[in-house]
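can u do me a favor
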């Protein structure tokens, strides 16, 4: 006779808490607090809960967007109104966010940012303002408004470097991102990333040491994310300015508008999406004379990765696209020197154009780069990936292809579509599809697609 012993469900320590926001949320009127409470208690509540849980599990090694929810199924967050402002009530919150019964201050600040940004979306970008988001200028103004509300747009000389790269990278590549961040920090430059682990954390970590050495009293480590991806890439602990943009397109525009230069480390499909987004914009005639330093860099072991990326770009977008970036391998100080020189050119151009230092109004971002792309199976199969198109138009659809794969990899809605209908199908010219398939296979082989578990492709590349 066999006896079956049932194992108890895994339980993790949790804690209830009541916290009071500081900063922008503590000077709201009663009417604003009521609208905020209604937004958080209505259709936005599940989104608020998911984003808050991602922040409270900051530093998690998982990139499964459902992992934290499954570990803390009873977690809840409520926004309450009181005469002196807002109160946030947490129930069954992860104990890892607390020390001796008190919430960690940095975690609390990120939590306030979640409430602030989701409230702004509900109040200032809700149905009443839908018409304003139907134009290119309207979307740019919305991006500006959200960043200004988050107090990101600070006057001062250009010094913000955006760092793109994968959340799933090797140890040598991660250490290299720290070394580059250190060299940037020694030169007084601040860091903006996608806020998650890997190549998003390394530059910030390196810069903190350099800023301490240089006695830099005010350092900005800005993390830009969006609701669909924050659960898979929870903010790393160094982020001290978190901003949640409504969607990936506004997130990408925010990077380009506030960054004075961009460094790209090794990564996967998300990094490829970012590169194609920026190159497509820079290839437009309206932006041909715009200085925008763009450096692709990594340690010696990553040289084949960048060679493959470079070949793919030249095949699809042409040699003119490759002229907009420089590849530097294994030399962090050279990267920092080149970026510093490029930012000086940006400063001179902004002065000549009478453009602001804190928000790049001059760069032309067309509507097709701003319109949110919903990666359904029909939309992915309908992408026009053929030669003969204008490079910036082809780049827009290539960007969407990679965006759809990101959704299928780590976004809950995309993962659900794949589970229900099978892999996305991507069609195009044979040579382009062959190059795309080779690039994606390399990402899989190098474990750049996911951190958690074995990767099962969410796509099929067909000629």
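np, heres the sequence
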């Amino acid at each position: 006779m066999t006896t079956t012993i049932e194992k108890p469900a895994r339980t993790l320590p949790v804690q209830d808490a009541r916290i009071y926001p500081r900063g922008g949320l503590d000077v709201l009127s009663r009417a604003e607090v009521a609208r905020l409470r209604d937004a958080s208690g209505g259709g936005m509540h599940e989104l608020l809960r998911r984003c808050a849980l991602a922040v409270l599990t900051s530093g998690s090694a998982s990139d499964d967007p459902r992992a934290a929810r499954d570990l803390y199924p009873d977690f809840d967050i409520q926004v309450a109104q009181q005469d002196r402002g807002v109160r946030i009530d947490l129930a069954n919150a992860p104990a890892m966010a607390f020390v001796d019964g008190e919430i960690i201050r940095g975690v609390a600040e990120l939590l306030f940012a979640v409430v602030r940004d989701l409230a702004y979306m509900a109040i200032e970008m809700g149905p009443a303002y839908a018409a304003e988001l139907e134009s290119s200028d309207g979307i740019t103004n919305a991006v500006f408004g959200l960043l200004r509300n988050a107090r990101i747009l600070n006057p001062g000389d250009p010094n913000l470097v955006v760092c793109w790269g994968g959340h799933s990278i090797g140890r040598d590549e991660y250490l290299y991102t720290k070394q580059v961040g250190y060299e940037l920090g020694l030169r007084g430059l601040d860091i903006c990333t996608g806020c998650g682990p890997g190549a998003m954390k390394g530059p910030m970590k390196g810069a903190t040491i350099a800023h301490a050495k240089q006695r830099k009293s005010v350092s900005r480590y800005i993390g830009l994310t969006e609701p669909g991806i924050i659960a898979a890439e929870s903010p790393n602990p160094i982020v001290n300015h978190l901003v949640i943009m409504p969607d990936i397109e506004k997130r990408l525009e925010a990077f380009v508008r506030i960054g004075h230069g961009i460094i790209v480390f090794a990564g996967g499909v998300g990094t490829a999406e970012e590169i194609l987004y920026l190159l497509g914009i820079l290839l437009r005639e309206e932006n041909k004379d715009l200085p925008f330093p763009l450096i692709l860099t990594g340690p010696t072991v990553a040289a084949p990765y960048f060679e493959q990326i470079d070949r793919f770009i030249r095949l699809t977008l042409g040699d003119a696209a490759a002229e907009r970036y420089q590849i530097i391998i294994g030399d962090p100080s050279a990267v920092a020197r080149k970026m510093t020189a490029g930012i000086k050119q940006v400063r001179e151009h902004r002065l000549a154009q009478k453009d602001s230092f804190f928000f790049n109004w001059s760069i032309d971002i067309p509507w097709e780069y701003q319109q949110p792309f919903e990666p359904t199976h029909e939309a992915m199969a309908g992408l026009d990936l053929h030669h003969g198109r204008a490079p910036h138009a082809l780049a827009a659809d290539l960007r969407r292809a990679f965006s759809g794969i990101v959704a299928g990899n780590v976004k809950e809605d995309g993962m659900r579509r794949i589970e229900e209908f099978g892999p996305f199908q991507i069609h195009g010219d044979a040579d382009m599809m062959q190059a795309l398939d080779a690039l994606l296979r390399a990402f899989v082989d190098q474990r750049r697609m996911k951190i958690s578990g074995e990767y099962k492709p969410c796509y099929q590349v067909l000629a």
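The first strand starts at residue 14 and ends at 19. hope that helps!!
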